[in-house]
Amino acid sequence: MTARHPHSHPHPHPHPHPHPHPVDSPVPSPVHARPFSVVICVYTEERWDDIRAAVGSVRRQSLPALETLLVVDHHPDLLARLVREYAKEAARGEVRVLPNAGPRGLSAGRNTGIAAARGEIVAFLDDDAVAERDWLRVFDEAYGETGPGGRPVDDRHVLAVGGRTVPAWASGARPGWFPEEFDWVVGCTYRGLPGGRVRVRNVLGGNASFRRTVFDTAGGFATGIGRDGDRLPLGGEETELCIRLTDAVPDAKLLIDDRAVIHHRVPHVRERFRYFCSRTYAEGLSKALVTRSVGADKGLASERRYTTRVLPAGVARGLRDGVRGRPGGFGRAGAIVVGVTAAAAGYLVGRFRTRGGGGALTPGPLGSGATVPDAALPDTAAPGAAEHPAAARRDALRRGAAA
């Protein structure tokens, strides 16, 4: 959980579920609002209720989306089930279900959604998260102010806007040992990020939006990095994209507005110390790939402040709480030390394993996704996807982690 901000909105339930009442029809959109395409990448039927809750939260936005794109990652049964579930919405053009047109993994799924998107802005929402009602409206406001007659006046320098992601713990409460400084481990906004609407190096991919033209300029998400189902949880694809974007457009502004809130479900398995260790180690592997592509100066710029200022303050706070007898204080201090150590170990292993081959990560192609027919059902799970060069690079790191 991040430091509390004045815009904080409490979530009524620790574990998001589909709303019990039928999904309302979208609220009429303001006349001059920017059109949003919302991409939700999905990969398992085990998250069926979460997927429906995520889609429902998009359809209840105060600023309705132009469309919701559900991109299914090489899972024919889930694809067919979603096609049936959203047949009526698909007929109205409100929800479209697409198979991932690239290699297996989150990055290629996002690229498929980008290619198919019709909106001026492409927003991304995790499949196990629900967005608050004004999520898209806050994004829209950040891309420019309202001018005379209610017309939006664009700040064309703003190319991406992210939001604040709040953990919804399956157990009902944060584990006492789990430090807020490491909420990124469970895909959430962490303590140390500034509040309000601020300029940042990169947005976080599960709660983010980009101008569609960004991807024409900088390319898509690199498919040699990022999550692949339930395998070793590599990440960092949004960091690499954002750095590549600001290299291509030096005067670009990337913002986070903490009023654009989503609530991200944290299952029991991710509340465990074992997952904490594996995820921090995997983050080190990911940073090795990112810095290999964009250089250490850019790839680790934000991390330097985080490790030299935010984390020492967190250790001191935990020790102080422990001395005062507050539950979990010593555990949080210890977890910070363990997390830093695991991430550093992963980074060193990743640098070692990528030292001799490959160069920069390759942006994933976008063109193939644009022509995928709605509700297309693949006969196979992408033959040959494992041989994709980028996927092979990612798998090599995972094999090293398992060794």
Automatic annotation (TrEMBL):
<dbReference type="InterPro" id="IPR001173">
    <property type="entry name" value="Glyco_trans_2-like"/>
</dbReference>
<feature type="domain" description="Glycosyltransferase 2-like">
    <location>
        <begin position="37"/>
        <end position="144"/>
    </location>
</feature>
<dbReference type="InterPro" id="IPR050834">
    <property type="entry name" value="Glycosyltransf_2"/>
</dbReference>
<keyword id="KW-0808">Transferase</keyword>
<feature type="compositionally biased region" description="Basic residues">
    <location>
        <begin position="1"/>
        <end position="20"/>
    </location>
</feature>
<dbReference type="GO" id="GO:0016740">
    <property type="term" value="F:transferase activity"/>
</dbReference>
<protein>
    <submittedName>
        <fullName>Glycosyltransferase family 2 protein</fullName>
    </submittedName>
</protein>
<feature type="region of interest" description="Disordered">
    <location>
        <begin position="363"/>
        <end position="403"/>
    </location>
</feature>
<dbReference type="InterPro" id="IPR029044">
    <property type="entry name" value="Nucleotide-diphossugar_trans"/>
</dbReference>
<feature type="compositionally biased region" description="Basic and acidic residues">
    <location>
        <begin position="390"/>
        <end position="403"/>
    </location>
</feature>
<feature type="region of interest" description="Disordered">
    <location>
        <begin position="1"/>
        <end position="29"/>
    </location>
</feature>
<feature type="compositionally biased region" description="Low complexity">
    <location>
        <begin position="363"/>
        <end position="389"/>
    </location>
</feature>
<dbReference type="Pfam" id="PF00535">
    <property type="entry name" value="Glycos_transf_2"/>
</dbReference>
